[in-house]
Prior knowledge:
Elements: H1 8-19, H2 22-47, E1 68-70, H3 71-81, E2 84-87, H4 97-110, E3 118-121, E4 135-141, E5 144-150, H5 159-162, H6 169-184, H7 198-222, H8 228-231
Antiparallel strand pairs: 1-5, 2-3, 3-4, 4-5
Amino acid sequence: MILPKTDIEDKLLRTKNKLVSNDTILLEVQQLLEKDFEIESEIENRLSQPSKNVENAFDFELLETERIYHIEQIKKICTDYRLRFLDSKYFKGEIPQSAISKIKHLEKAHGISLEGFKMMAPSKLFKLEDKDDPLLFAPIGNGYYYLIHKWGNDLHPLRKLLVWPFRGMVNLTITTLIVSYFATFLVPDGLFSKSGSNAQFWILFFFMFKTIGAIVIYYGFAQGKNFNPAIWNSKYFNA
């Protein structure tokens, strides 16, 4: 007599049916999902609230040291790459489910409810009041922040170079001089006189510098722009 093979899935199903009914399982799953939904909704609500001067009571034994940053380090990166570091309530992009899951995991592991969320991102990703790579932080205390999650695309590799002129007046002046110098070479020889000379070149350069400088001043002041160190933590569009 050949004994039939054992179907483990069938044995598992029979054992489950003996211990609990299908209706009970569905009810338990529904309750877990509803509780999970309530937790996520509560987290999303806290993300949309104004940041307070709080110190989240993290368990330092569970923190990853490479994810801890001081405000001065954050300020330097924001200044170098023309980013903003603002309350998460101003963030107009969509916060992904993966970020919510990270927050839930941290809160469960540390036994706390996180508050005071901050976002580091380009200005275009914030709903700024009138006056490509988001990072979500939570304050630890004493000027330190814990990086919870990063999503989206990385910044353009040339972004630091492209925003270098906006780091200060000296940078902007140097950039204007360099652009004016090369723009002067674009003026055809003999346009203003039959013979070119050093004096003519520097006169054209001075004219080009004034023209480009006027454009820069219009863009900077008329459009309400400001230098990187002045806007990195400002909630105002024309800070």
